[in-house]
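During the second half of the funding period, the structural biology subgroup turned its attention to how the target accommodates small molecules. The most pressing case was zinc ion, which had performed well in the primary screen but for which no bound structure existed. We therefore specified the complex as follows and requested a full 3D prediction, including the ligand pose.
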Amino acid sequence: MSDAKVTLDDAQGVDTAKTLAADVLGRAATPTFRDELIDAGLLIPMGVDGLYGRSEVFESVVEGINNLVTRRGADQKAEVMRFPPAMNRTDFEDSEYLKSFPNLAGTIHSFCGGDREHHRLLKCLDEGEDWMENQKPTRAVLTPAACYPCYPVVAKRGPLPEEGRTIDVFSYCFRHEPSLDPARMQMFRMREYVRMGTPEQIVEFRAMWIERGKALIETLQLPHWIDLANDPFFGRGGKIVADSQRAQELKFELLIPIESEEKPTACLSFNYHMDHFGELWKFHTADGAVAHTGCVGFGMERTTLAMFRHHGLDVTQWPAGVREALWGQQ
Ligand code: AMP
Ligand code: ZN
């Protein structure tokens, strides 16, 4: 297994130049897993690190895993909500994501000038100069995690029913973390079940999904283990927040080796937010207490990449049991 893993800085020009350099150098030596995925046509590079097209075969694996999650979660009677990969900027600001991960956030800007500014923009493009002067932030931002849009929506409905609520979400998400590690993308999909209710309901939900997550990954015959998460909270205070998250056991991850054995990749995550979102969006349980929330997230690309890593790039050669779990009787 290759352990080549390069995290690049965020200047796009530097980014692309380094990608090109790495391509040339990488291919001269041993091809990386990323090279192999691209050569096999499974991922289609787009000239920006962490941004890829996906082939039909890649998508068939994503779909198979997604269907497996649906089958394993059928008894949850979850309400299905599908949001576009963008959300209300005010809700995003309220979520406090910017306190923890300002460096990962993606805002959406659009041209907001008149004829004169348009003229200048075209001139800048012509002359290869910076054309962003009149690009202004819109009311939409890119979704950082699939569950984010659903909390304010559910909060607006008033108190939760006695049994709480379970929501099923699935969305592309954006995080600005350009990398040559194919498992660290800038746009990727997350399937989630989100639970809202009393602390007991959330704790029970999370414990159940840790077991179900492990069982699902066992069905896919992938090596894995569960560990406390180590989220990359930003800035000087970041370590304190990360330590507190671990001390309170707020987040577990299911890890699978993809790029390296020593640093396995988080493919599923199991979160308990306590009353964080309930407080922010003022939603309550049936008896008037602030609601607690939690979610289980399935990283669709990462789990798919783990399949290619461990079962090979040719899906026709995958173990029969795995093929059946993904696509039914062949
Ligand atoms: P998180 O909110 O960080 O727990 O992310 C939820 C899930 O999304 C993780 O368990 C991963 O499987 C997946 N994920 C997070 N970041 C990335 C990324 N940069 N590229 C691909 N998948 C990711
Ligand atoms: Zn979530």
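Two results from this model are relevant to the next phase. The chain has two domains: 33-106+144-327, 111-141. The two ends are 30 Å apart (CA to CA).
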